[in-house]
Write a structure and sequence with these properties.
- By secondary structure, the protein is of the alpha+beta class.
- It contains 8 helices and 9 strands.
- The strands form 2 sheets. A 6-stranded mixed β-sheet has the order 4-5-6-9-7-8. Strands 1-2-3 form a 3-stranded antiparallel β-sheet, with no helix packed on it.
- Strand 4 and strand 5 form a beta hairpin.
- One of its GO terms (cellular component) is small ribosomal subunit.
């Protein structure tokens, strides 16, 4: 029985060879030719093999058509127009505050902050992109979205396509703003949503988490309290590492960065109050061979 099946398959393959030989002939459709040959020859045991081959050829044709239809849009290099002084790209992370309207007439603004370096990398539809990519991206290599976001929209860090953060609260899509902070060896991730002033840390009420110590509680929510916004937002914080005091300082920095994401005009006030400054003060480590960080063993000559 096995020999009969092998002979039948061999005969079917031999009968189907003329169909496959037309695949390399220019100007002929291999799928239509295979169907015509099978219909004319009338070989019953070739049908399964022919169906599989036709499906494979159709899939290959669709893939080649998709590749040829995916045109590579023009990617230019970022530059600033010398005549107008405007760049050919939009970087949403270059947020600025115009203080000129608040200055008295005849007063010059003192330069401050880091030196501005213009972007000179690749630009696609006014959006800075990674070098070496062609858009739209190949769907066989990348997950959607295959196009960069709109000009002026932030991306990354789990943002949606419109540049905002969203979370589900009781089956409702709610927008939130997020920040990350550190203090000593503690880290914190803070999300703020529009609310009535609730403060949750690691699933507990902040007063309970900070052991009913008001100094740590006020230190953690100080940026919102200083701007009189405490009862307009709900704070959802997750902290880990270090002690309670270090976690309170990490939550304060993360909260200030989340507030900056919500309203960039709050940045000068929070920067002046040092809410956006990472506190680098740490416990000095103990030295090897010595009892403490600064304490030394007494020196004895003999």
């Amino acid at each position: 029985m096995r020999g009969i099946i092998c002979m039948a398959l061999f005969a079917g393959a031999a009968a189907f060879v003329p169909c496959l030989s037309t695949m390399s002939t220019p100007g002929l459709d291999p799928v239509a030719t295979a169907r015509r040959d099978i219909k004319s020859k009338g070989v019953p045991f070739v049908v399964p093999m022919a169906v599989a081959t036709i499906a494979a050829l159709s899939l290959r044709q669709r893939r080649s058509t998709a590749k040829t239809s995916r045109k590579a849009e023009e990617v230019v290099m970022g530059q600033i127009d010398p005549e107008t002084g405007k760049p050919n790209y939009v970087n949403p992370f270059e947020e600025r505050i115009d203080f000129e309207k608040d200055l008295p007439p005849g007063t010059q603004k003192d330069p401050s902050g880091k030196k501005f370096h213009p972007y000179t990398g690749p630009v696609y539809k006014k959006v800075p992109v990674v070098e070496g990519l062609q858009f739209p991206l190949d769907p066989n290599l990348y997950y959607p979205p295959l196009e960069p976001p709109e000009p002026g929209v932030k991306w990354g860090d789990g943002r949606a396509q419109d540049g905002n953060w969203y979370m589900d609260i009781e089956d409702e899509k709610v927008q939130y703003w997020q920040g990350v902070g550190k203090r000593k060896t503690a880290c914190a991730i803070v999300r703020i949503v529009k609310g009535n002033g609730q403060f949750i840390v690691n699933g507990k009420d902040a007063i309970q988490y900070f052991n009913n110590y008001p100094i740590w509680w006020l230190k953690a929510c100080e940026p919102l309290a200083a701007l009189s916004q405490k009862n307009k937002f709900d704070i959802i914080a997750k902290s880990f590492g270090g002690g309670v005091s270090g976690q309170a300082g990490a939550i304060r920095l993360a909260l200030a960065r989340a507030m900056q994401e919500y309203n960039f005009n709050w940045r000068p006030l929070m920067k002046k109050a040092r809410f956006l400054t990472r506190d680098w003060r740490m416990v000095e480590p103990k030295k090897t061979g010595q009892p403490k960080a600064r304490k030394k063993t007494p020196y004895h000559k003999r």
